[in-house]
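Appendix B, Record 12. Input sequence as logged:
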Amino acid sequence: QSTTTRVFIMGTIAGRLNNEHGATSSATLTTIRNEAPEGSVVLDVNLRSPWYTPESVLELAKGCAMAREGSDDSSSEESPKKLALLKLNEEELCILEQWCDLKFTSSSSDGIGTESDDGLTGSILKRRMEQLAKVLNTQRLCVTRGKDGAALLCCKSSSSSSNDDDNDDNVEFYENAGYPSPAINNDSDTVGAGDAFLAALVASLFIESESPPRALERACALGGYVAGCRGATPEHEDAPEDLKNVFCS
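Logged structural output:
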């Protein structure tokens, strides 16, 4: 018997008008975020000034408590449901940390700097992502770093009511250094690279049930390929063999 995997993918840019000019997209996104099953919503953060507010972005990420079905008691509410995945880039990581009053230091607890002073690799990035994932109520957090690849944090505990979020054994952290953009032509642009990255990540994680590091590898490979092409939808047959092998092996 076949099973169906339902994943709701939304981006913050879609709700940019809020309720202005009769727009309904923002309200629709909020409804889906709060009523979809736990762990079924993927949120792609796209901060394009002036088309966002901190409040609207954080509301989509965190979700809202909902009244329990069949209950009229306002005190009987379910905890906000966790996102399946939150994706953002390195600049948006810093912005959301500021909105959530999270502090980032480039040194370890003993005062010795580790890995990278910009906090975008290794154990420092892992700690940053753990903090943000907990505050923003998501099972997985992905931070893209352009040509330097991406990082993926997966929280094993999927229950909103779990109190074990601070246990390091409940967290898996993966990094991929990225794939160089192939020199398809001299007229390339990065249009669609982020969407291609997310599509590969979602398909690999949720549809094909690939391991997180494998899913991250595929996402970085496809995103790098699209970034080296003209437009957002290059022909698949034009892709280099090493890229095809990432998906076929």
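The longest strand covers residues 150-155.
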